[in-house]
Every structure is written in C-alpha cells, then in structure tokens.
Amino acid sequence: MTKTKKIRAIVADDESHVRKLIKTVLTTMNCEVVGEASNGRDAVELFKTLKPNIMMLDINMPLKSGKEALAEILQRYSNAFVIMMTSLSDKETIEDCINLGASGFIRKDIEIDEMREIIRKTWQAYRDTFKP
Known about the structure:
Elements: E1 7-12, H1 16-27, E2 31-37, H2 40-50, E3 54-58, H3 66-76, E4 82-86, H4 91-100, E5 104-107, H5 112-130
Parallel strand pairs: 1-2, 1-3, 3-4, 4-5
C-alpha cells in the first residue's frame, strides 16, 4: 500500500486461523501487524494502547461484539480506520457497522487477491479523505 513507512495494523478475530490469514495478507501489503486480539474487549484495549493505522475487526466475537468494539473505538478515535470482517453476518449488521463509521467490510470467504484489493482501495479512500 505504501512503499516507504510500514502501515501498523491490528487483527482482531476469535479464530486463530483467520488472524493468521489476515496477518499474511497484510504483511504482503507492506503492513506490520503490531497486535492481535481474540475478542472484542482486547481489541479495544489494543487499539487504545497501540494506536494502529488499520484495524481488521471481526463482527462476531466473544466478550464484546465487533460492532460494540467499533463504536467504542470510534467514540474515542473518530478518524480510526477499521475494516469489519464477516463470514455469516446479515446485511443489516454490516450496514449498522458502516453507519457507525467503519471504513469498510470484507467477507472472510473471498479470494485473497480480492481481499487485498478491497483493503488497498478502502485505505486509499481513507487517506484521500483524512490525509493523516
């Protein structure tokens, strides 16, 4: 995504194999995964502590849902870049996350190249809007 400074990312998903997959995808995009969370509560705490450029956040997680974690993060960091991830969520839940302020969403069952392209395009749109 950028050829100079690595983009710092957190991956939050309750399934370790999904975290590993997303970490691999982000690493190939010149991102440095600086943290991982297996539940929504830890995801919020990691975001507060590490203040990443990007967070990949699963919608369905224990202790605090992705939607609840997203709301809490955006309440404190209104320009946070968060892409929601889903495999089973209904359209209404995804729309709720976008309305709350998620930068985008990805279905976890899409092809890797398509996932990279969605992340890249979403990041570019964010950068064009906020120019950090």
